[in-house]
Write a structure and sequence with these properties.
Shape: globular
Low-confidence stretches: none
Mean pLDDT: 88
Radius of gyration: 20 Å
Number of strands: 9
Helix content: 25-40%
Largest sheet: 3 strands, antiparallel
Structural class: alpha+beta
Order of helices and strands: HEEHEEHEEHEEHE
Length: 149
């Protein structure tokens, strides 16, 4: 599993990722994880929209934090390099996924309990498998694990 630099970081992760959805305090039908509720209330109920910026290459609108990532599509800038080969990537998460699945041979193994031996390079593949092969539609992470092969 993942290691945390502090208990505070672990607790923040647990709250953000593993907490159950909560009902909107303003009474609408929205049910969101607690970390997303303040933005929902601010944008939907208070009418405060996040600032948008225009891409200088294609004029699409993006949140301030997403423009740099988008511009890499146009500039072909690939600042994240694989530690094991000459591939480079526009996003750090894509580079890490490449290293895990290609060079470190980490895969996601199905734990559905019926003798299934399926494994996948990416978590999304394991989730899709759990839905279609085992009819599991929630709490996916408890039904697969990542391990070295």
């Amino acid at each position: 599993g993942k290691e945390w630099t502090s208990k505070k970081a672990l607790y923040k992760h647990q709250w953000a990722v593993h907490s159950s959805p909560v009902a909107c305090p303003r009474g609408c039908d929205a049910k969101l994880k607690p970390i997303h509720m303040p933005a929902h209330v601010r944008e939907v109920h208070d009418g405060v929209r996040r600032a948008k910026v225009v891409c200088p290459h294609c004029s699409k609108l993006f949140g301030v934090n997403n423009l740099d990532q988008h511009v890499r599509i146009h500039t072909r800038l690939r600042p994240f390099s694989c530690r094991f080969c000459d591939k480079s990537f526009t996003q750090s998460v894509t580079c890490a996924r490449h290293e895990d699945s290609i060079h470190l041979y980490r895969r996601y193994f199905c734990l559905a309990g019926d003798g299934c031996k399926a494994s996948f390079a990416q978590a999304i593949g394991a989730q899709r498998h759990l839905k279609t092969a085992h009819n599991i539609i929630s709490n996916y992470s408890s039904h697969y694990e990542q391990r070295d092969t």
